[in-house]
Design a protein that fits this description.
8 helices, Carbamate kinase, alpha/beta, two-stranded antiparallel sheet
């Protein structure tokens, strides 16, 4: 079965209703015949709340325990998403980073992915599981401690899984319907892009645009992972992120398609 990676950000899973909405989107892709790996963030606002609890409890905190606390946000979302999918009669289970396992460096709160194991999840796909709901942002170090990947780390998790499982594509669901020329919340005249190169996307992310985590864009560019950034709240087409050579071919294909339509 082809594999599809779907990542849902914090606003897309901010409450139980939104988790249910996201689960319906997953169900649509399962019905198309995909084995789906869902990467989830913590529910909107939860990570900040957890950070506050840590700081209130221990201003000079142990970074290892900081990661243990923060990783719980994604763990909760993964469990709730798996339960919702099960209620829809879709075979699903949640996965913590250590269960995959997703191996990282021991640089707590800013760990880097070193390896993503595929055997455990593939074995469950072989047994009939259709959706693996993975807690994003977290992994495990060689020391056996929970680690986190830094702010926006669920994006990096999603791209990493798409590469490890040779996914057909990686869909990033957010609160806007694609990538815009500038922030549409600030500039009403902002224009949505149908497609963008990885290089352009990386430049935007590096300049502070809240598109994707720069590390995630760089990883997608290196492994040539097709990414589609789209809204979790509408059916509008998103923005395709492609390699420059692939994007050139895409433009030629669209040009020829329009020529054919005009002649008919």
């Amino acid at each position: 079965m082809p594999v599809l990676v779907m990542k849902f950000g914090g606003t897309s899973v901010a409450n139980l209703d939104r988790i249910a909405r996201a689960a319906k989107r997953v169900g649509v892709e399962v019905a198309k015949g995909y084995d789906v790996i869902v990467i989830v963030s913590a529910m909107s606002g939860k990570t900040n709340e957890l950070v506050g609890w840590v700081n209130e409890t221990s201003p000079l905190f142990d970074a290892r325990e900081y990661d243990a606390v923060l990783a719980s946000g994604e763990t909760v979302t993964a469990g709730l998403m798996a339960l919702r999918l099960q209620e829809m009669n879709i075979p699903a289970r949640s996965w913590h980073g250590w269960q995959v396992p997703l191996q990282t460096t021991a640089n707590h709160s800013a760990a880097r992915i070193e390896n993503i194991g595929t055997d455990n999840i593939n074995a469950k796909f072989g047994e009939g599981m259709q959706v693996a709901v993975v807690a994003g942002f977290q992994g495990i170090s060689d020391e056996g401690r929970i680690t986190t990947l830094g702010r926006g780390g669920s994006d990096t998790t999603a791209v990493g899984f798409a590469a490890a499982f040779n996914a057909e594509r990686c869909d990033i669901y957010t609160d806007v319907d694609g990538i815009y020329t500038t922030d549409p919340k600030m500039v009403p005249e902002a224009r949505k892009l149908d497609s963008i190169t990885f290089e352009e996307m990386l430049e935007m992310a590096s300049l502070g645009a809240k598109v994707m985590q720069p590390n995630a864009v760089q990883a997608a560019m290196m492994d040539n992972i097709p990414i589609n950034v789209r809204s979790a709240f509408s059916e509008k087409s998103g923005t395709k992120s492609l390699a420059l050579s692939t994007l050139s071919g895409y433009f030629i294909q669209q040009h020829n398609k329009h020529k054919t339509c005009n002649h008919q």
